[in-house]
Predict the 3D structure of the following.
Amino acid sequence: MIRHFHRKLLALTGGSGNHAPRARQTVYGSAGGRALSHAWRDLTNSERRLIELLLTKEFPGADALRRQLETARVSVIDAEGSLQFRVSGPPANVQRRVPTEGYYFDTEGVDYRPAVNVLLHVVEGKLHELEVYKDDGSPIETSLDAVDISRFHLP
């Protein structure tokens, strides 16, 4: 119900504005072929490139977030592939919890909804979460680690 409301809110706002964190059921084990745990690891090259692309957008605090990204360790927190961050560096003076976001279509040859949305959350000036979810709630076919960066859209 809450996830449905979140999707409706994004549809009404066009995916912009201040986003509240979505309700999530944290899963341990494996889902959709992706192992889930709270083990901290480095970003994969694909994840790093995608976040760097999100941070090409200019907004207050973007430079500080780029510096934080250099120190980032992450942990997968849900079946969709959302990540939580551990970073160091000076806090970013951002004006919104979600200062940047993007989306991609995870079915080859499809360039319309449902989209996989990727939102970068900042809490207390620190990279906090990379939220990933699909518009219609169906399973994500192409994970963040496998997405072709040329298919990623910035609004």
